[in-house]
Amino acid sequence: MRSKPSQPRSPRAAWLAALLLAGLPLPGCAGLDAAYVAADRATHRALAPEYRQYVLRDAALDPEQQARRLRTLEAWAARLEQAERALGEGGGK
């Protein structure tokens, strides 16, 4: 029997999840756009702390669901750091 995929538990959580997912795709290092990376960093700074708190406080999430969401935030931050390093090395447009 398959379990249902987890879904956000409130409209606020759905909004946060949608915005979080919007920031995930980051182009490869070739041809990085500094404005895009700066905008993605600003989005991360605005959303990540609140989303992290939501994840940690949502009693409806089991430990695996919590861990997966927290890893997503960590991966987003790591991609941003990689892109920012590449831009610092002259990799931006």
Structure description:
The protein is mainly alpha-helical. The protein is built from three helices and no strands. The chain has helices at residues 11-22, 34-57, 63-91. Helix 1 (11-22) runs antiparallel to helix 2 and helix 2 (34-57) packs antiparallel against helix 3 (63-91). The longest helix is centred in the C-terminal third of the chain and has 29 residues, at 63-91. The model has no long low-confidence stretch (mean pLDDT 81).
If helices are DSSP runs of H or I spanning 4 or more residues, what is the number of helices? 3
**Proportion of residues in helical segments:** 55-70%
The beta-strand count equals 0
| Poorly predicted parts | none
What is the rounded distance between the termini? 50 Å
What is the string of helix and strand elements? HHH
How much strand?
under 5%
Largest sheet: none
Mean pLDDT: 81
Structural class per helix/strand content? mainly alpha
Question: TL;DR of this structure?
Answer:
The protein is mostly helical and 93 residues long. Helix content is 70%, strand content 0%. The protein is built from three helices and no strands.
Question: Layout of helices and strands, plus pairs?
Answer:
Layout lengths: L10 H12 L11 H24 L5 H29 L2
Essential attributes:
mainly alpha
